[in-house]
Amino acid sequence: MTGLVCVVGSLNDDTTLAVPVLPSPGETTLTRGVRLTSPGGKGANQAAAAAVLGAEVAMVGAVGDDEPGERSLAALRDVGVDLTAVAVREDVGTGIAVITVDDSGENTIVVDPGANRTLTPDEVTRAITAASPAVLLVQLEVPRDAVTAAVEAAGDAVVVLNPAPMPADPEPVREVVSRVDVLVPNRSELGRLAGRPEPTDASEVAECVAALGPTGSVVVTLGADGALCFEPGAAPVLVPGIPTSTRDASGAGDVFCGCLAQELARGTGLLDAVRSANALAAASTAHPGARIRADLVDRMSPLAP
């Protein structure tokens, strides 16, 4: 029986622009005439992925009392996410993100948090206490004190932290890392957390993980190279990347985290959960947009290990 996944995080309105190449600093790049507007936000994307895959999901966050907020809520409602703990603010707009995607599928993302900045520790604590989740999934697009409150209120839940986007000063994040069960950084985030350059190979990744000090499990996402899984007392395991015709890599990390949370809520062991998340995240890059669609899951499932 699958337990509840509670996601504390952001809800945004995304505008995705297709460009031949990502612009360099000071450079202007014209789009290919393709503009996609869709609901997004790391928290909402991860909640949607877990729900589409069959988990019972509750979202904790904030939107503005505006059309983007309505779109965000409707999209989550359509896939069965419980929105009881999503606050609607009258005095601030819904968060927005502008995403550029080049011909190779690589992307850049700029986010204005909007209502996401207003989520309070009290709101988070009340929501998690009421939900009593099996898995708590958190990112860093909401205030740091809300993230800390979420971790403190988790109780017996498995706490999964995706430390993105990494703030300019990672020290407050380091204070939280030792209190989570599963940390899911990419290479860049791991390097900054460890106070080291971004690792380029498995040995450097392992050195960075060791430099974090006492932690639970660490799953380092490596993009097209797959993921490295570190569990206490065990040798690290590489889950290889799956070759895919990438159209848009934006949101792949969110699909990974949502799938990982859904599998952990089912009682799946961490390594097998990583294998499933790795397969689905790879498959998701073949489709445009930052959010997995329910009608694509059956098509993606043959890739699962």
Features:
305 residues; alpha/beta; UDP-N-acetylmuramoyl-L-alanine:D-glutamate ligase; 10 helices; 13 strands
Summed up, the domain count is 1
Question: What is the CATH architecture annotation?
Answer: 3-Layer(aba) Sandwich
- The count of DSSP E runs of length 2 or more, i.e. the number of strands, is 13
Number of helices: 10
* Helicity level: 25-40%
CATH top-level class? Alpha Beta
Q: If you consult CATH, what is the topology?
A: UDP-N-acetylmuramoyl-L-alanine:D-glutamate ligase
Poorly predicted runs: 301-305
Order of helices and strands: EEEHEHEEEHEHEHEHHEEEHHH
User: What is the CA-CA span between the terminal residues?
Assistant: 21 Å
By CATH, the superfamily comes out as Ribokinase
Strand content is 15-25%
Q: How many whole angstroms does the radius of gyration measure?
A: 18 Å
Described by the principal axes of the CA atoms, the overall outline is globular
Which class do the helix and strand fractions yield?
Answer: alpha/beta
Strand order of the largest sheet: 5-4-1-8-9-10-11-12-13
Arithmetic mean of pLDDT: 90
The major β-sheet equals:
9 strands, mixed
Question: Overview of this structure, please?
Answer:
The protein is α/β, with parallel strands linked by helices and 305 residues long. It is 34% helix and 24% strand. The protein has helices at 42-52, 67-78, 121-131, 144-152, 171-177, 187-194, 202-211, 252-265, 270-284, 294-300; strands spanning 4-8, 12-18, 35-40, 56-64, 82-89, 95-101, 107-112, 135-138, 158-161, 182-183, 217-221, 226-230, 237-240. Helix 2 links the parallel strand 4 (56-64) and strand 5 (82-89). The longest helix has 15 residues, at 270-284. The two termini are 21 Å apart.
